[in-house]
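Review form for a predicted model. The reviewer records the input and the model, then writes brief findings.
Reviewer: anonymous (R2)
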Amino acid sequence: MKKKLLFIALLVLSTAAQAQSDARVAEIRKLYAEVKQGIELKIQADLPHDDMVVSLDYMAPGAGPIKDVTHYYYDGEFEEEANNVVYRPNFITRKFNIGAMEYYEEFLFEEGSLVFYYCKQLENETRFYWGPSGYLHEDIKGERLASPNSAASSANLMKDVFQMMIGRNN
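Model under review:
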């Protein structure tokens, strides 16, 4: 009897956790759509938008010519404690090749924290979602292109590079 009650309790907790996870994924998808739409509307209306583009072209031994283009979309907010405008990326896109293989990545941030990662290479797609307590969910189509840890590490590196380029240590 105790085993049945324990099983039922675990099932209820698991179902509740899955419902919370599904709700957070839905929130992130909504945020993603809003951010993408906002960027697109500003571009179409030819309005100024806060973005920075970094384009690298170089030769890599064994891979040949590499083209790596990264778009940083960011917000600036005056913070009294810093007595300065603090810039934080909210959406980063990156298109690059390794040899003949082309990749496309997206990083979505909410309040400075990574909440979504997307990578596409041919028909393969990888999506990771994060919540307040860490890694939350993944959607994989075809072959997995990254791990949650490598995606988070790349996001942190992208944020660090952004801060170096904008000349602020926020």
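Findings: The chain is about 35% helix and 45% strand.
Further findings: Helices lie at 2-44, 148-166.
Recommendation: see findings above.
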